[in-house]
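Narrative of accomplishments. A recurring question from our advisory board has been how the design workflow behaves on a single, concrete structure rather than in aggregate. To address it, we present the structure tokens for one chain from the evaluation set, followed by the sequence designed for it. No filtering or post-editing was applied between the two.
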């Protein structure tokens, strides 16, 4: 009888540590975040009055919030799109290499082994108007020096370039793994039918790789929404808020102006926005039924 009880409770005992960690580091922080988003919460105030939906109502009138939504949208679409195109091209090239594949792969993966703060600082020095290497090459081409990070028209593209440099290898390695999992038979059948290299890529590679592509895009989209470290090291949200993303204004409101309640409300809206995008995409591609059909 005791052994039977132990057998039944065994799976729950094994899951208990993981569930406890999930409760401590995911569920409780989210409940706390949601709670303070309905308060005028500040660490310097003894009383944290309940304000209901006032923080959320304030968002609707906050120009900085809507600017951050626009900047985040431009940043996410640009970075994820470029990283996918370049990453897919690199994955296809590496997959065709007969020798030196591991060496080139190791070299290309170096950027994702670096901390975002280090990458941000490195590109900040490289884009310096006075002694940066970017302006050295600009002058070699006969153009004048450019203020990459203080020019409102160039600051966001500079940030996008930095993110693309660091995270394209991440996209590449996922797509390369997917390419290696495609069997040879469909390509052999396409070759017998007289398909060209482009037709094989369009009608064999892309359909076989479609689920991997969606997973890679979703992972990078989630991560791109959270960008903060690189912005802090390179532009600090400027100039004139052109690189101020949702993650940046959460920091700005919460830790600079100590408006924790308002910052929490922005975080909740950001979470809802990300989850809504992901659920929309997952429904469209029917990824929930991924294991049942192919």
């Amino acid at each position: 009888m005791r052994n039977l009880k132990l057998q039944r409770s065994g799976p729950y005992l094994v899951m208990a540590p993981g569930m406890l960690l999930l409760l401590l580091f995911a569920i409780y922080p989210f409940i706390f975040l949601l709670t303070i988003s309905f308060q005028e919460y500040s660490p310097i105030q003894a009383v944290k009055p309940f304000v209901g939906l006032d923080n959320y109502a304030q968002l609707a009138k906050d120009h900085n919030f809507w600017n951050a939504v626009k900047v985040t949208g431009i940043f996410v679409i640009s970075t994820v799109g470029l990283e996918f195109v370049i990453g897919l091209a690199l994955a296809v090239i590496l997959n065709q290499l007969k020798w030196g594949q591991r060496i080139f792969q190791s070299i290309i993966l170096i950027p994702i082994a670096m901390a975002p703060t280090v990458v941000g600082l490195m590109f900040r020095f490289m884009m310096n108007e006075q002694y940066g290497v970017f302006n050295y090459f600009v002058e070699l081409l006969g153009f004048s020096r450019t203020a990459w990070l203080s020019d409102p028209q160039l600051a966001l593209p500079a940030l996008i370039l930095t993110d693309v440099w660091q995270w394209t290898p991440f996209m590449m390695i996922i797509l390369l793994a997917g390419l290696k999992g495609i069997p040879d038979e469909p390509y052999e059948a396409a070759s017998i039918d007289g398909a060209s290299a482009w037709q094989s890529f369009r009608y064999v590679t892309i359909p076989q790789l479609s689920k991997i592509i969606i997973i890679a895009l979703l992972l990078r989209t989630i991560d791109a929404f959270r960008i903060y470290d690189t912005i802090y090291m390179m532009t600090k949200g400027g100039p004139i808020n052109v690189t101020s993303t949702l993650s940046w204004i959460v920091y700005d409101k919460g830790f600079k102006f100590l408006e924790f309640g308002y910052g929490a409300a922005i975080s909740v809206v950001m979470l809802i926005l990300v989850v809504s995008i992901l659920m929309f995409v997952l429904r469209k591609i029917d990824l929930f039924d991924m294991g049942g059909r192919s």
